[in-house]
Amino acid sequence: MKVIIVGAGIGGTSAGIALARLGHEVVIYDRMRENKPVGAALSLWSNGVKVLNWLGVGAEVAALGGDMADMVYLEGHTGETMCDFSLAPVTAMAGQKPYPVARADLQALLMERVGMDRIHLGRQVVGIADDGTKVTVTFADGTTDTGDLLIGADGARSITRDYVQPEGAPEIVREYSGYTNFNGLIPTDAAVGRATAWTTYVADGKRAAVMPVAGDRFYFWFDVPQPAGLEYDRADGVAPLRAAFDGWAPGVQALVDAIDPEASLNRVEIWDITPFSTWAKGRVAILGDAAHNTAPDIGQGACSALEDAFALGIAFATNTVSVEDTLKRYEQMRAERAGDLVLRARKRGYETHAFDVDATEAWYESLRGADGVGIIRGIVGNIDGTPVDLGGGLRAV
């Protein structure tokens, strides 16, 4: 069958690899004109890495990943160590080490593996038509393409999502999560944190953090609770960070000083979408942010998109009644779990960003002297239930 995929991001390319390996003809269209991923890096927890192993790029991903052996929390103002523990139990329970990776590196790998001859950039889809036997997409330039099915991996503002919703269904709207994220890449810096640790400074509902990625680099991010729509001029560089984190610990000041705004600094308002259950209509389905746009507070956004690709591949490898039936089975495999992760991230963000001050202060207190057991329980709780484990679950240690 000919599969048209709209979107060449992590979800679209991984789905393309999965379906091409099953012998389908895959063509991917994306409105971007060159590979410029949004965001500097992403967390690949064990469930996401397992999908990449299944897609045949496990060794390459391991080479791109940072050696994140430990997790450290520091008090934001003083730099006092609140807790410091190994993440080895996550690997032992899940059966796979997690890796932070630079997004551009991972996306370039997936695009190369799916095949650049299958990817067409600068093509914006403006219309979708399904006649019951074929799906036709219309592009902004008036050209069209036709395939046996369409997978919309076209992001948070997905046109495909609008198409698959039932007539008369409530409008699906993005909701502001209450904070802005600044992120990028810097060289590894011992003044900020250990080269093998995920280090997070916390206070006042704000966070400043670094994670190691390949190439002796840190992926950094800052969370700043603030209203949506504030003006920001890229010429301002790190000025908003200096203001928001004035008086914070020396490690945070060293982090801000290390940022080269011209080389790597992104500012992203964080939004999500309340989960919904309709992911497929006829020969058209959605995956990734189009289906479950989430805040990054539990680090499962990319992993959830990779789970989509896995489930889609399994559905097409095992079901033969019809394309429509297979896409509905894919929807049933994914909608509930993906939606649950969106709500977990929303709840986590509410707790960590002082939208409930008492809850945030209680969280800070729980970090002091923590042995990591409770935090690891939360991390593996997000991994448990992944379709990639085929019901095997996590092994106790």
UniProtKB/TrEMBL annotation:
Pfam families: FAD_binding_3. The keyword Oxidoreductase applies. Pathway: Purine metabolism; urate degradation. GO terms for biological process: purine nucleobase metabolic process; urate catabolic process. It catalyses: urate + NADH + O2 + H(+) = 5-hydroxyisourate + NAD(+) + H2O. It comes from the Bacteria. Transmembrane segments: none annotated. The keyword Ribosomal protein does not apply. Keywords: FAD, Flavoprotein, Monooxygenase, Oxidoreductase, Purine metabolism. Its EC number is 1.14.13.113. Residues 2-342 form the FAD-binding domain. Its cofactor is FAD. One of its GO terms (molecular function) is FAD binding. Belongs to the FAD-dependent urate hydroxylase family. This is FAD-dependent urate hydroxylase. It comes from Microbacterium saccharophilum. The lineage of its organism: Bacteria, Bacillati, Actinomycetota, Actinomycetes, Micrococcales.
